[in-house]
Design goal:
Length: 82
């Protein structure tokens, strides 16, 4: 599915949420950089990331923060061993 906004479209809130977490695992955004939240799009009925506005609650969750830290470490090791 494509959107005239040219942004990547996620089909559900859950999918956008998961993709946002993975984005923060794979890219080293400093505080307040990169996509911080997602929103429902009125043009395509999907969901898109946004780098503006308040940070998504999911990214502030302790469990999710731990997961991001853990998976970042694992990713760094994979890079070193490659
Ligand atoms: Zn859209």
């Amino acid at each position: 599915m494509t959107c005239i906004s040219n942004k990547r479209t996620y089909l559900s809130k859950e999918q956008a949420e998961e993709a946002l977490i993975e984005h923060h695992i794979h890219f080293d955004h400093s505080e307040g950089q990169g996509p911080v939240n997602f929103y429902p799009c009125g043009l395509c009925n999907g969901w898109h990331f946004t780098s503006k506005g308040p940070v998504a609650g999911i990214l502030k969750s302790g469990e999710v923060k731990k997961r991001i830290t853990r998976e970042k470490l694992a990713r760094d090791w994979e890079r070193k061993l490659r």
